[in-house]
């Protein structure tokens, strides 16, 4: 059985890797010749109603497919070792492949109906993967993920119904010349809201850290290139329609608040996977905000560079959690660089790429984004939020490195840390290479001319200033006791506010659901278990029981005595009447 499971891992890995390389070759060809292919396949034609499958292939969809298939191939290979104790490994791999297929369908679709198929497929399969371990926490997280994503699904369905006015669901036909139409603006608002649910912007952020209940390979796939990036990709495709809308400015405000909130929450968190999930939320806020400022190519550039180092970050976290006897609390870790040097190397490089350390992947996109922010005519609030959020990224990254790499080892004295899982290491090394070279490679591919942004010296160096400040703060906080720091800053109440993502789970889930659940419980007690029991189930049972006791009395030969006494009584009455007459 295990051989069969391993073979499905290897076959899936080779197919996805080959598909990734094929996409890369085609993408180079498409960029060099400036090509866009639009395919329509008529599936069925019935009484002048055509059901058509459309495919849009351009450099953007091919490049994104290349990244998705490369990361998923590496994740499948990584799962061969990480999920080796899983009895139903083939089921897990099939779910992952369904997930990737849904994402690819979303990427190549210029048609709202096929987008809905991919969009809904992502939501459904993500639910199956989040509840994979089948415990109470997984079920809660799965329902939260699925129900939040259902809001986006409903909005896409409403977009499909509104687009009936145009005669086709191929949105690419309408973006250029119908942006002033009121119906298209309503469609644009719905698309923005749907993207906000998928990419977990405020107020839909609470599902993203909860989805950490999924196995770590799934987290690596979800948080790098598939589920959470679907909303960003959809907005990039719709950018022509949305760029002048007022609602896009609201999205800018919400996304920088998401970025700020996730950065602060990550500094109060001790769960390794949740820290990385909150860093994903912060980077999604960065993508959404630069997108809402009107730079779709920059958002796409950061999306791709982020996908590489974030997948590797989750893989390293998975290896460390395995070594640590399935403990995810960073307070138990420390000094792991002495025992697992290669995994620590991958973790540190992906962390540095996340911070935007020069000449790694994240530097090329983050530095360009922040310089464009400095160059744009935005208000001071947006500018300050951008740079504080960048500093916070350095803050929680340094804190994570201090807790995991530098401080003393805090687990039980008997431990077995080893760095010889070559399947996991090989898969991480592929992403390590991409985390180093993908930034410069993509900056050549995506931008056909070099961006030269002239800024004053201090504004040009602002990224370095806030990064150094954030790193120093992370170092200091790690060395101080967190409780004494709270006492010093008088933030007892503030820390719970920050740690719980500004009470986002309470507001967006429990706050919405609690009254309905309470009302349902009262209904169940008073109606289901109360009046309806008396008048239907239990009441009928009592009546039938009493009748059966009553009838039982006659069935024990009492009927004969009763009838005999009745006849006797009638006979006596008859005699009495005859005597009196």
In short:
The protein is 74% helix and 3% strand.
Question: How are the SSEs ordered, and which strands pair?
Answer:
Blueprint (H helix, E strand, L loop, with lengths): L1 H32 L3 E10 L2 E9 L1 H24 L6 H19 L4 H19 L5 H27 L19 H17 L8 H4 L5 H7 L6 H9 L1 H4 L3 H22 L4 H21 L3 H28 L17 H15 L5 H15 L4 H27 L15 H25 L10 H4 L1 H18 L2 H8 L2 H8 L4 H32 L1 H44 L1
Antiparallel strand pairs: 1-2
Helix pairs in contact: 1-2, 1-3, 2-3, 2-8, 2-13, 2-17, 3-4, 4-5, 5-6, 6-9, 8-13, 9-12, 9-13, 11-12, 11-16, 12-13, 12-16, 13-14, 13-15, 13-17, 14-16, 14-17, 15-17, 16-19, 22-23
Structure description:
The model has no long low-confidence stretch (mean pLDDT 83). This protein has a domain at 511-580. It is elongated, with a radius of gyration of 31 Å. It starts with a helix and ends with a helix. A hairpin with a 2-residue loop joins strand 1 and strand 2. With 581 residues, the protein is mostly helical. A two-stranded antiparallel sheet has the order 1-2. It contains 23 helices and 2 strands. Helix 4 packs antiparallel against helix 5, helix 11 runs parallel beside helix 16 and helix 15 (361-375) runs parallel beside helix 17 (422-446). It has helices spanning 2-33, 59-82, 89-107, 112-130, 136-162, 182-198, 207-210, 216-222, 229-237, 239-242, 246-267, 272-292, 296-323, 341-355, 361-375, 380-406, 422-446, 457-460, 462-479, 482-489, 492-499, 504-535, 537-580; strands at residues 37-46, 49-57.
């Amino acid at each position: 059985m295990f051989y069969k499971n391993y073979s499905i891992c290897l076959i899936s890995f080779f197919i996805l890797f080959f598909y990734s390389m094929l996409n890369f070759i085609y993408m180079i060809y498409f960029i060099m010749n400036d090509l866009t292919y639009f395919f329509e396949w008529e599936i069925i034609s019935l009484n002048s109603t055509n059901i058509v499958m459309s495919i849009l292939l351009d450099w953007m969809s091919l490049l994104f497919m290349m990244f998705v298939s490369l990361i998923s191939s590496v994740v499948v290979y990584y799962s061969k070792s990480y999920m080796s104790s899983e009895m139903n490994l083939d089921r897990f791999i099939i779910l992952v492949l369904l997930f990737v297929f849904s994402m690819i369908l979303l990427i190549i679709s210029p048609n709202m109906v096929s987008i809905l198929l991919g969009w809904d497929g992502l939501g459904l399969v993500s639910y199956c993967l989040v509840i994979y371990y089948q415990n109470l926490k997984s079920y809660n997280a799965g329902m939260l993920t699925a129900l939040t994503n259902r809001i986006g699904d409903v909005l896409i369905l409403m977009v499909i119904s509104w687009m009936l006015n145009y005669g086709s669901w191929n949105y690419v036909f309408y973006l250029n010349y119908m942006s002033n139409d009121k119906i298209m603006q309503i469609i644009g608002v719905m698309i923005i809201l749907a993207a906000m649910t998928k990419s977990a912007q405020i107020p839909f952020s609470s599902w993203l850290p909860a989805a950490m209940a999924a196995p770590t390979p799934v987290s690596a796939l979800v948080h790098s290139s598939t589920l959470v990036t679907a909303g960003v990709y959809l907005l990039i495709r719709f950018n022509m329609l949305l760029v002048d809308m007022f609602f896009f400015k609201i999205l800018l405000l919400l996304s920088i608040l998401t970025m700020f909130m996730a950065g602060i929450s990550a500094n109060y968190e001790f769960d390794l996977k949740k820290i990385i999930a909150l860093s994903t939320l912060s980077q999604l806020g960065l993508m959404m905000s630069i997108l809402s400022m009107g730079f779709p190519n920059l958002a796409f550039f950061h999306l791709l560079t982020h996908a590489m180092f974030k997948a590797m970050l989750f893989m390293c976290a998975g290896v460390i959690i395995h070594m640590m006897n399935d403990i995810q609390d960073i307070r138990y870790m420390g000094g792991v660089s002495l025992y697992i040097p290669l995994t620590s190397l991958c973790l540190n490089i992906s962390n540095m790429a996340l911070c935007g350390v020069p000449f790694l992947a994240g530097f090329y996109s983050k530095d360009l984004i922040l310089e464009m922010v400095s160059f744009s005519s935005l208000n001071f609030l947006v500018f300050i939020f951008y740079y504080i959020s960048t500093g916070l990224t350095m803050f929680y990254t340094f804190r994570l490195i201090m807790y995991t790499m530098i401080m003393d080892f805090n687990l039980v004295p008997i431990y077995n840390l080893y760095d010889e899982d070559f399947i996991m290491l090989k898969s991480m090394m592929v992403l390590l290479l991409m985390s180093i070279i993908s930034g410069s490679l993509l900056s050549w591919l995506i931008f056909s001319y070099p961006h030269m942004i002239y800024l004053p010296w201090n504004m040009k160096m602002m990224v370095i200033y806030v990064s150094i400040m954030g790193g120093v703060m992370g170092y200091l906080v790690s060395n101080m006791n967190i409780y004494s720091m709270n006492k010093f800053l008088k933030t007892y109440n503030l820390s719970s506010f920050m740690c719980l993502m500004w009470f986002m789970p309470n507001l967006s889930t429990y706050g919405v659901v609690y009254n309905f659940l309470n009302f349902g419980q009262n209904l169940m007690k008073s109606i289901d278990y109360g009046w309806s029991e008396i008048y239907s189930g239990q009441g009928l049972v009592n009546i039938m029981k009493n009748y059966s006791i009553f009838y039982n009395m006659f069935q024990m030969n009492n009927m004969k005595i009763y009838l005999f006494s009745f006849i006797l009584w009638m006979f006596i009455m008859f005699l009495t009447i005859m005597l009196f007459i």
